[in-house]
Fold this protein.
Amino acid sequence: MTLDDLKTNQKGKVLKINAQGPFKKRLLEMGFVTGAEVKVIKYAPLKDPVEYMVKGYHVSLRHEEAEQIDITPFK
């Protein structure tokens, strides 16, 4: 399952980042590290980008960016 599969107010834990190069580094710097808890805050009016909360910060990612982050959802 990827981060892009979560719906509003759902939470998950980061398992793996599938991105490469500078984009992977950017994701890691934003807090998307293995084991980090991520919550979907809201979708933009046109559904892209999506606002997430990770490590106390609000971060917006596009769908194609969120698809590169594997997560396990919380029940």
User: Anything to note?
Assistant: The radius of gyration is 11 Å. The helical segments are 21-29, 63-66. The chain has one domain: 3-73. The longest strand covers residues 11-17.
